Amino acid sequence: MRFNHVANRLDARHFEAVVTMLKTRLGFVELRRTERAIWLRQPGTNIDLQFSRSETSQRDEDKRRSQISFLSDTPRQDLEALAEWFATRGLEASVGAYSDREFFLDVPAAFVDFVIEAMLPKLAEYGDVAGL
């Protein structure tokens, strides 16, 4: 088997807002869409994101441990800009920190089971990895 994509859930009421943010602010392109889900890819990458519409009002208590992660030279500032984007659309958003190098964005009304993480690129330098 080969890795293809990861899937997360978005509140159905805010599904299109999150998709719009990913397309307009982070450059994602739409690969496929059904009534309940969408597949997106950021150019230059080879892993896809699938989002499914969710009607649940329950939010995972430990969703901060489930991230969609991005590399950034200015991770806090980039997430704060996204939080402002959501706020101008009436969605409460907050930025927190795992450390002084890793930060997360939560939009509780929209993100059911994940947060968006941004971290410094050096954290993704894993050195030589056998088999890659």
In short:
This protein is 19% helix and 33% strand.
User: Which structural class best describes the helix and strand composition?
Assistant: alpha/beta
Please give the largest β-sheet.
4 strands, mixed
Please state the CA-atom Rg, rounded to the nearest Å: 15 Å
Taking the alpha carbons of the first and last residues, their distance comes to 15 Å
Residue-averaged pLDDT: 93
* Strand neighbour order, sheet with most strands: 1-4-3-2
Order of helices and strands: EHEEEEHEEE
Helix proportion range? 10-25%
Account of the 3D structure:
The chain is an alpha/beta fold and 132 residues long. 19% of the residues lie in helices and 33% in strands. It is built from two helices and eight strands. The protein has helices at 15-26, 75-87, and strands at 5-11, 29-33, 37-41, 48-54, 67-71, 94-97, 102-106, 115-119. It has a four-stranded mixed sheet, covered by helices on one side. Strands 5-8-7-6 form a four-stranded mixed sheet, covered by helices on one side. Strand 6 and strand 7 (102-106) form a beta hairpin. The two termini are 15 Å apart. The model has no long low-confidence stretch (mean pLDDT 93).
